[in-house]
Amino acid sequence: MSEPDRPDEQPKRLFGRYWESASGFWKGQSAKVSWPLTIGLVAIVLAQLTVQYQLNYWNRDFFNALERRDAAGLWSQVVWFVPLAVLSVSLSVTSVWARMTTQRKWREWLTTHLLAVWLTEDRYQRLVSVDGEHTNAEYRISFDARIATDAPVDMAIGLLNAVMTALVFINVLWTVGGNFHVVLAGRALTIPAYLVLAVVVYTALFTTAMAFVGRNLTPVIQAENQAEAELRAAANEIRELGERTPPAAVALAELHDVRSALTQVLLRWRQLCWQLMGTTMVSQTDILLAPVCAWMLCAPKFLAGEMSLGELTQASAAFVSVQVAFNWFVDNYQRVAEWRSSVNRVATLMHGLDAVDGLPRPAPVSPEPDHVI
To answer: How far apart are the first and last CA of the chain?
Structure first.
């Protein structure tokens, strides 16, 4: 008998089993659809970043013209804003189509694959003979397979955008912010690329806080999903009693199962509520403080005449863009936890179906001969 996985190895094992099957979407016949969609999504992200970069410089030029009271320059920027806005909206709409089409096609492929494995060779019947936490297979195939394919597309696009945004706008912060000179205890100190250092420190603080506050979010979500599945299964048993011919009465045992399942759902929901309250506190504090922090960091240079109003707004916008990019983990912590929970549940079902193949096939039952009267 193989040794059980250590706690730190189990998530890797589950993800490996999930990806072994789910990555088949980019192979074989489905690759003719999956790869063009994937490449198209990457191209859209890069195009959106280019527009965002242009809007950042438009922001600088607009406020500089406003500070100079330059009416001609101001209206020139207004005219230039129109094509940038149209392009930005068009790319956003196209991104929604490409993203949701990819999610739909991937979900279709994975669900079809799971159904084929589940139904072939009567595995759906033999699964009850396998030990493990793979109950409610239909819930895992319908609900968890959707989360397991929807979330990674969103997160992959967001992560790519975050990385590219950080690389591009760090250069803006470095160029516009420059070095910061300060006198402490009679000594002149120079902080190189101070806005870049500030955004790194700021993000590190909030990322650490989110990781600490939400450290139990994944198992809580997984337990809540399992409780919901158990409630649905208990309710289905009562429905099946009513659909019999003739209908069967509901026994106290069935009512007890439903009430017990509902109690577990409400308990898990309360636990999830407390977890989300903590992560929301961190994320909302982050959202409120980021622009204020950027303005306060740029204010000394602006008041000293070393930075124009346009450069202040440009640097502040770039600071927030880099902060949002670095804070991808903070902003998506709940989504990542939900995705990991669904991946674990789908992978657990896959492991159970794999184990079915190692069981002996039951002997077919011969039909009883008809009695001759």
So the answer is: 55
d(CA 342, CA 273): 19
Average pLDDT, integer, range 254-262:
79
The per-residue pLDDT for 54 is 93
Tokens of 132: 């493990």
Which tens digits make up the pLDDT trace of 326-343? 878 777 877 888 898 889
Q: What is the pTM of this model?
A: 0.71
Tokens of 33: 């659809």
Give the number of residues written for the chain: 373
**CA angle in degrees (0–180, nearest 5) for 102-108-109:** 90
Q: Which domains does the chain have, with CATH numbers?
A: 12-356 (1.20.1560.10)
| Kind plus residue range of the DSSP H or E element containing 191 | strand 187-191
**How would residue 360 be classed by pLDDT, with cut points 50, 70 and 90?**
low
Give percent of the chain above pLDDT 90: 25
Cα–Cα distance for residue pair 69/259, rounded to 1 Å: 70
CB 227 within 8 A of CB 341: no
> Cis peptide leading into 246, omega within 30 of 0?
yes
Could you tell me where the DSSP H helices lie in 304-326? 309-326
Whether residue 107 is predicted with pLDDT greater than 90 in this model: the reply is yes
Residue among 178, 157, 179, 204 at smallest CA distance from 323: 204
From CA 121, how far away is CA 137, in angstroms rounded?
16
Distance CA 156, CA 163 (A): 11
Cβ neighbors of 314 (< 8 A, separation 6 or more) are 56, 57, 59, 60, 63, 172, 176
Distance from C-alpha of 211 to C-alpha of 264, rounded to nearest angstrom? 26
Tokens linked to 243? 């659909």
